[in-house]
Amino acid sequence: MKTTASILAIALCLAASAGAAQAQSLDNNQRNNATIKATLNATISGVSDDVAVTSAAIANSFSATGGTGSSLATLNNYQNFWGDARSDLSASISNVVDDVSVTSAAIANSATIEGDWVGVINNTQLAGYDPTSTLNATLVNVGDVAMTSAALSNSASIDADFGRLASFQANNAGVYGNMNATVRDVRGSVTATTAAIGNSLSVTGF
After folding, report:
1. pLDDT averaged per 10 residues, the chain (length 206)
2. pTM for this entry
3. Residue 202, CA distances (Å) to 105, 110, 159 in order
């Protein structure tokens, strides 16, 4: 009887612990009414390895990552951007043996959620002013080239199994991605991407 009672007590304790773990919640509230600006002017020459140049202006950023077996009852994300996000990158790069990557990014609201299980996910992202990315680049005598100028108002990526997902994204801003590039004497491939995105939601893992 004592052994049975002990096993029952242990089972009840484990069940209570599991219930408590699943009852956890996570709340994120971010508001930004200021100007966010990143400026990078780079002159690079004579490099025997890769070159990566990045200018990023990000107003509100939220990342939640759960480990193996992780669980949440509720995850609430609220992001409100009423400022100005600007990224300006000017690069002159020459005589690079390997690859060159150049990125200018301006982001108002960004959220990334990863985990095994979330009961309810509520995502709200609001943007009211203009994210603007500008990239001016001259690249001469290099390996592979990858150039990106990206401006995003609201971006959310969710990789989790969940019971319910409610996402609301509202963009009242102009979104501008600009690129001016001169590229010559490239030994590999060239990829140039300009993106202007108002609202983006990616959901996987369910």
Report:
1. 41 39 82 97 98 98 90 96 96 98 98 96 96 98 98 97 97 96 97 98 94
2. 0.85
3. 19, 12, 8
